[in-house]
Each structure stands twice: as C-alpha cells, then as structure tokens.
Design goal:
The complex is a heterodimer of chains A (about 80) and B (about 280). Chain A has about 80 residues and is mainly β. Chain A is about 10% helix and about 35% strand. Chain A is globular, with a radius of gyration of 12 Å. Chain B is an alpha/beta fold. In chain B, about 40% of the residues lie in helices and about 20% in strands. In chain B, strands 5-4-3-6-7-8-9-10 form an eight-stranded mixed sheet, sandwiched between helices. In chain B, strands 1-2 form a two-stranded parallel sheet. Chain B is globular, with a radius of gyration of 19 Å. The chains are: A mainly beta (about 80), B alpha/beta (about 280).
Chain lengths: ~80, ~280
C-alpha cells in the first residue's frame, strides 16, 4: 500500500532517454514532488531535455506532480 | 505553345506516356527546355514515362503541381541528400539547395551525395550533379551559403515549402524564423543515433519552441552519432510531407511530432494538444 504522502504517475520516455531506463513505467513520488525531481531521480541531465509534456501539454520542470499525471520526456535531437 | 507544336508534342506520346527519348526530341525540335516540355506535356495530359509509377499514387494534375513547385532544402548532408533525391525523382520542378559546406570523409557513412570523388567539393554542387544525372527537367538552384536571418529571405524566395535538413539546433531556429517571416511552411526533421523526430511548422506556429524548449545542449547526436539509416528515414517522411502539402492528399504532421525509434522499430505521433491547429 502506498502512504498518503505518495503520488503515482506514468512516466514515458522517448528516444535516447529509454536507454538503460524504460519506455513507460508507473512510478511513485513523494507528495509535492516536481517534474525536476523525476528528472533527477531518472539521472537525466536537465540540459539534455528538449520537451516536457504532461497529458499531452507542455509543462515546466517546476510543475508539481499530481496523481495520475502522464509525464513524457523528450531529448534534444539536432543532427542531420 | 502553338497548335503545330502542340500537335507535334502529342504525336510523340503513346498510351498517354512520353518517353525520355521523345521528351528530349520535343525539346530539341521546338527549342524548349526539358522542364518546359514536361510542363506542356502534363498540361496536355501526357505523362513523362519516368513518372509512370507515380501514376497510381498521384494524378496528372498532382504531377503538374510537383512540376510547378519550388522547394527549399536547407542542408545537403545526411538528411538533405536524400530529400533532394526524393524530390527530384518524384518530379518537383525546382529545388533550392542551400549548404555552405564541402564533403569530408566522415560524411561517407551516410550522405547520399558524398562519394570518394566528391571529397572536398561543395555539397550543393553534388546535389546539382546528382539531380542532373537523374532528372534534367528539374532545376537545382545551388546556394553555397550559410542561411541566416539576414540572407534567408533572399535564399528561399519563391519557395512554397522549405525542408529543414540542417545539423544544429541553433541553425534550425534561424531557419524557422526566416520561414515564419516568409509565411512558408517548414518541414522539420532531426536525428541522433537510432532516433529521429519530425514535425511541420506552418506560419504562425512554433513547434520547435516545444521540441527544443528546455534544453541548452547541442543535441544527442554529439553523443549518439549519425548512422546511415536514420537520415534516410527522416528524409523519407519529409519528402512525403512536401508531397502531401503540394497536392492536398493525406494528413500532414501539423500539430503533431513524429518520434522515430529505429532501435525498437517504433514510430509514434505525439499530439501537441495545446498547439494551434
């Protein structure tokens, strides 16, 4: 059972962020955690992030997580 | 074209097709360019035989839209080489190829236009030579310059669609600003390692501000490299986007980003739910 102080969200990773991590996972964070805390937990360098979505909409790293959020993280791809 | 010339042109066709030999004969006899003959043939409902396998996908009216189109390709490296190839083969009438660089050995792993003989020569010149060898009815305007906010409007004048085949995020932002000021749709494609992303930026829309909204880094390609297959995949989708915009078929990527993961064999369209559509 989860404690009251926990939020469960879905994290979806794209492209190179999947390497050594996962594609999509349900994860628990402490209540009040922000997107930046998820990024740190996943050991992703914030400089490498291109786009952050929550439920298909743009979100900032300081956005506080809510139970049921679907967070998606996309890396910067710039080659050609 | 006068009646006699028109009759001569039509007499050269057979089964609704105009062979390459006949195409050249008409151009030489009537003193027209190969492009002018192609245009006249399509207006008359005569399809150059080279486009016979386009026919079930695109109508003659569509082929005429390709013929009359002028498309900008900014960057003639990994992605851009394949984009130029695809546009020339489908029958786009004019391609404006923009790239300041020359070929070097590290381009040989992926860049279609890069051959050993071409090392040290300008990428835009290779684009022009390649197109001339495939489809001389297509005009290539070779611009050996680095596109910036200052020269972009001049370089891309008259283009109805511009393909982003650049290799840096900074340069892509510059191109988007230029396309925005020209009111020209831009087809974005970028790769890194096994991964690629695509989207369409129509005037007034700024999907790159989303895709590149948070990062400060140069992009994952500096760590993951640029293999042969991801530029091919990105370019294929970009050429299809150009075709869709020109003829109005299918569903464009407007309001979406297409994320390609070739390591897992996975392509996913991500909706920009809050983007103007």
């Amino acid at each position: 059972m989860l404690s009251e102080g926990t939020v469960t969200i879905t994290v979806k990773l794209f492209a190179s962020f999947r390497r050594g991590r996962f594609r999509e996972a349900s994860r628990d964070y402490f209540a009040g955690a922000r997107i930046a805390d998820v990024v740190a937990d996943l050991r992703i360098d914030p400089k490498d992030i291109g786009m952050i979505f929550i439920d298909g909409k743009h979100a900032d790293p300081d956005r506080t997580l809510r139970a049921g959020d679907a967070l998606a993280l996309f890396p910067l791809l710039g080659g050609g | 074209m006068n009646e006699a010339d028109r009759a001569f042109l039509l007499a050269q066709g057979g089964d609704g097709l105009l062979s390459w030999a006949a195409h050249v004969r008409v151009a030489e006899t009537l003193g027209l360019s190969l492009g002018e003959v192609e245009e006249a043939a399509l207006v008359e409902g005569l399809l150059p035989s080279r486009y016979a396998r386009n026919r079930a996908t695109f109508s003659i009216a569509d082929q005429l839209r390709f013929r009359r189109a002028r498309i900008g390709v900014v960057g003639c490296g990994g992605i851009g080489g394949y984009v130029v190839e695809g546009l020339a083969r489908i029958g786009v009438g004019a391609i404006v190829a923009v790239d300041p660089d020359s070929f070097e050995e590290s381009n040989l792993n992926r860049q279609l236009l890069c051959t050993i003989a071409a090392l040290g020569t300008a990428k835009v010149d290779a684009a022009a030579s390649r197109v001339a060898a495939i489809n001389p009815a297509v005009t290539v305007v070779a611009r050996r310059e680095r596109l910036t906010r200052d020269n972009g409007a001049r370089l891309l004048e008259g283009c109805s669609v511009v393909v982003d085949a650049l290799d840096s995020i900074i340069a892509r932002r510059e191109l988007l600003a230029v396309c925005g000021s020209l009111g020209t749709p831009m087809i974005h494609g970028a790769i890194a390692g096994w991964y690629g992303q695509l989207c369409d930026a129509f005037p007034g829309e700024a999907p790159l501000d989303r895709l590149y909204g948070h990062g400060e880094g140069p992009g994952e390609q500096t760590r993951l490299g640029n293999p042969s297959f991801t530029p091919m995949a990105a370019a294929a989708f970009q050429v299809a986007e150009v075709c869709k915009i020109l003829v109005g078929q299918g569903e464009t990527l407007r309001g979406r980003a297409l994320m390609i993961d070739m390591s897992e064999g996975d392509v996913e369209a991500v909706e920009f739910a809050d983007e103007t559509r």
